Amino acid sequence: MSEVLLITGAAIEGGDRADLLIEDGRIAEVGSGLSRAGARVIDADGLIALPGLVDLHTHLREPGYEASETILTGTRAAAAGGYTAVFAMPNTSPVADVAGVVEQELALGEAAGYATVQPIGAVTVGQKGERLAELGAMADSRARVRVFSDDGFCVWDPLIMRRALEYVKAFDGVVAQHAQDPRLTEGAQMNEGVVSAELGLAGWPAVAEESIIARDVLLAEHVGSRLHVCHLSTAGSVDIIRWAKKRGIDVTAEVTPHHLLLTDELVRDYDARYKVNPPLRTAEDVEAVREGLADGTIDIVATDHAPHPSESKACEWQAAANGMVGLESALRVVHQSMVETGLLDWAGVARVMSKTPARIGRLDGHGTDLVAGAPAEVVLYDPSRGGEFGLEDLRGRSRNSPYLGRELPGSVRWTIHRGYVTLADGELVELGGTA
Amino acid sequence: MRHVLDTRTLGREDAIRILDVAEDMADTQSREVKKLPTLRGKTVVNLFFEDSTRTRISFEAAAKRLSADVINFAAKGSSVSKGESLQDTAQTLQAMGADAVVIRHGASGAPRTLATSGWIDAGVVNAGDGTHEHPTQALLDAFTMRKRRYGADSRGRDLAGFRVAIVGDILHSRVARSNVWLLHTLGAEVTLVAPPTLLPQDISLWPVTVRYDLDEAIAAGPDALMMLRIQLERMNAAYFPSEREYSRRWGLDPVRLAALPAGSIVMHPGPMNRGLEISAEAADSPRSTVLEQVKAGVSVRMAVLYLLLAGERTNAERTTEEER
Fold first, then answer.
1. Global pTM value
2. Are B127 and B140 part of one and the same domain?
């Protein structure tokens, strides 16, 4: 694992070309015409080098739902998508609401070796929204939890939310809210609007997201806490975050790749691959979240990678599970929706997919500039080598991708984590289960 | 036709063809021997995930009068957790050699999922899916309207200029959706009358006029007033305050019945809540087409099954199937 790597001619964050010498888990040198006897040379001519991607919102399903994904298979999918760190959401079984579970996840991530697994702790016991989980114990554990979320459920009770926001200040934590008013979304199946009216599917109105975000930014302002908004999906939510930031409220927000590209028009055939929570919205919403990401209102892209077994999708829409896998496709989707549209450059991509997510999650050793001395977390991306996204592109355990059969630009070629190669010219490296 | 899944995508030509074949079928139903040999050897499965005796027996009568073998399959539960999945049920029917599957399901879109999943080769007829569509109901309603207007001269005609007001719980009504699209396709003008809570939040793209006031709608002089069944559990979800208030504002009481212009008809898909959305006077009046609708249901379903199973297929359909 401790081989010396020499990456030649990579466009650093899409800009100037440089060679990167990687040794002992760090970038030893950056420059031109570098050479080192015995180094493994990676010809990066035509490739863009970005800091290894960091996903603040991943469902790895272990423990409890190993039929969908495991920490090993999920981090292999991560490596294939250019990720070197993933934050694992706590809706496992048991729920990650105690130190023991988050430490187990951490250990399984270390053993797998494909990416840093940073557990997220549940805000409330069992994600039931009633009592605070032992947030401090998780923060103090070996897993050093800093992000807390009941993702999948909204911390709906305003008093519990207030207390959670206040309490995590003690260890520089952040509450990542899944903003969904449960009463306004009872039985909800898809975005409420023109398409839901026609399809006869119960609507998930934008206001159910926006009203919670509005409440939460006001709570965060009142108690002087840090708030992170998960998978923001509507134009109105972008407006609220923009207002809150202008007001100086300490809020960050994420958008998923699918909300940057897909709309609720895709639901018309009742193909459950497009069923996700929050639901796919309208073209106007897609436009607004793209603009929000471009102007910094939305801070990051996070995948909400949510694996499900095929039987949970091969059924009637109403019975199908919410969620899409996204780790393997995220960078390509962002390329298409943000870079090809001229809304972001590659430095911007590095910011929203690596640097800022690491900072929000207080994760050291990731999301740093590709300079001498930085940790060797690197992805090499070929922007000119696009193609149809197919089953062979999926490297996790589940196949519920909305992009199958769709043309996407670009290709993730190499991923380097802690100085060793996890993805070599598009192929996963077999690490043998230990790093 | 390969499937009948909705009226949203049903073209004018196909719709009129179904209605015309239904006329032929209706003619055979006045004969002493009602049974035709047309679908002998074909198997029609009535796959009902929801109880609906009326719709099921209508399809059953239609299939039997065409001499098809009928299997009634009352499936319990609809989700993976509750029992057998839709996929396994479909594949079971495929293995048994079903030629057509008539499906009633509580989940919107289940018939389309069945038809497009590749689990089954049979033609699929949507007999009502969740709050989405109920295309044969709309077809039998159109048949009834056309018959009342044009009598024996109905064949080949559409409903151009016919004005229909649909009254009640539009939000949860598959009957309303199917009627909106089909009536529009056939040239009729549709007005929806409902409490604002029982309209979908955004129907700006629907080819309809919306009113909240039933008296105004009646004053506009519709050719047909279609009363939808109101479900009492809607009250508990705060869609309207009470049965009495609903009835007062949106029920067809004797005063409103009398205000209808001569020649207007009163329709109801059944089963009726007498005294709630429709008064006994209205239900039993000569304007009421409730029983004609039931009768038309058998003819229309015979036509649909005939066109699915015995009808010649168009070149386009053949090409599509070869490509599959």
1. 0.94
2. no
